[in-house]
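Q: What residues go here?
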């Protein structure tokens, strides 16, 4: 009976550990507290032996645990779900497309859902999904059969290298752009012509359905324009809590408590939409045209608010 009591006690401790892990509260001290009565002494070696023994007990059931920043984290669930190849492909596509979601709250919730789904995959399915994501090259052009001819023309223009004058609709207004065409891009909603605006010195992604006319100038672009980087600074609490997005890097917080961020590759329209939400806590440093455009948008928003 004594052996049975110890077995039951050991099981309860494992369930306590699982509870902490599932709640993401398994910090080092909390885990030690569960097994403190097993510690004959407080030496580092003795503590590690006890922890390893109990973590290995989880491995028997296929549960993976890693230690990150003095905290234990689950890498797999006690119960796994079965996924078909089509399921994994769909998850892979969704993982790719949420990068373009404009609403950060929606993007965050979808990411949480994907994490919970991946959490319940077995090793085989997780490896298959990783292979899909690493070799992802989905072509969404089949969605755009109605504008197939326009897409073909844009692809041809990209190869020719001429400087162009493009007339297109932006927010319902006709807009002119002197530029060089780079490539045709697709997402799940829109086909774009990516161009480099030689006046504003920035990349633009123009919806092909919004293009009214394209005129070739008798001039070949001298060189391939590189993506313009955007430098901005964040202040106050945002400087400490901001999480870098893909294509961003920073040297950390400066002496004034500001976070200087270098952004590369994010479309300017999407970047401005995001930075505008940071209000007075964000200021674009360069390039100057984008800085001026953000100030203009802020003033227009304030004027509209005052008029209302």
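A:
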């Amino acid at each position: 009976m004594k052996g049975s009591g110890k077995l039951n006690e050991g099981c309860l401790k494992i369930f306590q550990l699982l509870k902490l892990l599932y709640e993401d509260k398994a910090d080092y001290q909390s885990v030690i507290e569960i097994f403190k009565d097993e510690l004959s002494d407080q030496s580092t070696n003795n503590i590690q032996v006890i922890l390893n023994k109990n973590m290995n007990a989880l491995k028997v059931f296929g549960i993976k645990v890693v230690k990150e920043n003095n905290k234990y984290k689950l890498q797999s669930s006690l119960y796994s779900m079965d996924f078909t190849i089509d399921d994994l492909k769909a998850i892979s596509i969704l993982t790719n497309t949420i990068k373009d979601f404009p609403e950060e709250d929606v993007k965050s919730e979808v990411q949480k859902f994907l994490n919970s789904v991946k959490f319940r995959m077995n090793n085989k399915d997780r490896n298959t999904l990783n292979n899909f994501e690493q070799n992802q090259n989905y072509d969404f052009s089949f969605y755009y059969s109605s504008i197939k001819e326009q897409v073909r023309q844009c692809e041809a223009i990209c190869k020719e290298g001429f400087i162009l004058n493009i007339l297109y609709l932006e927010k319902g207004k006709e807009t002119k752009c002197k530029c060089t065409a780079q490539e045709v891009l697709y997402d799940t909603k829109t086909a774009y012509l990516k161009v480099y605006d030689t006046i504003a010195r920035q990349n633009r992604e123009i919806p092909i359905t919004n293009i009214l006319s394209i005129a070739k100038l008798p001039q070949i672009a001298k060189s391939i324009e590189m993506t313009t980087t955007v430098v901005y600074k964040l202040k106050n609490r945002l400087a400490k809590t901001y999480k870098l997005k893909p294509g961003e890097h920073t040297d950390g917080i400066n002496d004034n408590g500001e976070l200087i961020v270098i952004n590369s590759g994010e479309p300017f329209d999407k970047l401005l939409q995001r930075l505008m939400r940071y209000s007075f806590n964000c200021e674009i440093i360069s390039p100057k045209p984008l800085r001026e455009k953000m100030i203009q948008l802020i003033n227009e928003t304030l004027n509209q608010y005052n008029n209302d």
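A: Context that may help when evaluating the design: The first helix runs from residue 2 to 22. The longest strand covers residues 173-186.
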